[in-house]
Amino acid sequence: MVLTAEQHHPNIKIFVSAHKQATFPEGNSIVPVQVGAANAATRFTNTLHDDEGVNISAENPRYCELTAQYWAWKNEDADYYGFCHYRRYFDFTDTPHKENDYGEIIDSYIDNHALAEYGINDDAIARAVDGWDVITTPL
């Protein structure tokens, strides 16, 4: 089977919800979104905003990060959609890491070493989704 260019390079967007100013991983797959932007006193310069296009940003006090999910659904086009929080990212590697009782991997902070350790980059993310329709945690 011959893969199309789109299959070789799928459009992957992992929307990172943020209600506080933060530094975000670089890459095309990681898309920071300021949630509750309609009600915010400050507009972040390094994110998209959930009050643009079709949105429910003003409802953020009731729906929290779901306003980013709604915004992405109505305004973005991707082959793969993902959602996470600005301080909580996925591990896109096959490397086992120590987990707490809730299945979380705890690290002191997110720096370049942590980004590399957990595969938070376009290539690792593309490898993780290759051949799958849905990615989720193990049961």
Low-confidence stretches: none
Return the structural class: alpha/beta
> What is the CA–CA distance across the termini?
32 Å
Shape: globular
Order of helices and strands: HEEEHHEHH
Mean pLDDT: 91
Helix proportion range:
10-25%
Described by strand count, sense and barrel closure, the largest sheet is:
4 strands, parallel
Strand content: 5-15%
Number of helices: 5
Description:
The structure is a single chain. The protein is an alpha/beta fold. It has one domain (10-129). Helix content is 23%, strand content 14%. The chain contains five helices and four strands. It has helices at 5-8, 60-63, 66-75, 112-117, 122-129; strands at residues 12-18, 30-34, 48-49, 80-85. Strands 3-2-1-4 form a four-stranded parallel beta sheet, sandwiched between helices. The termini are far apart. The model has no long low-confidence stretch (mean pLDDT 91).
Short key terms for the protein model shown above:
single chain; 139 residues; alpha/beta; four-stranded parallel sheet; 5 helices; DUF4422; transferase
Short account of what is shown:
This protein is α/β, with parallel strands linked by helices and 139 residues long. It has helices at 5-8, 60-63, 66-75, 112-117, 122-129; strands at residues 12-18, 30-34, 48-49, 80-85. It has a four-stranded parallel beta sheet, sandwiched between helices.
Strand and helix layout:
Blueprint: H1 5-8, E1 12-18, E2 30-34, E3 48-49, H2 60-63, H3 66-75, E4 80-85, H4 112-117, H5 122-129
Parallel strand pairs: 1-2, 1-4, 2-3
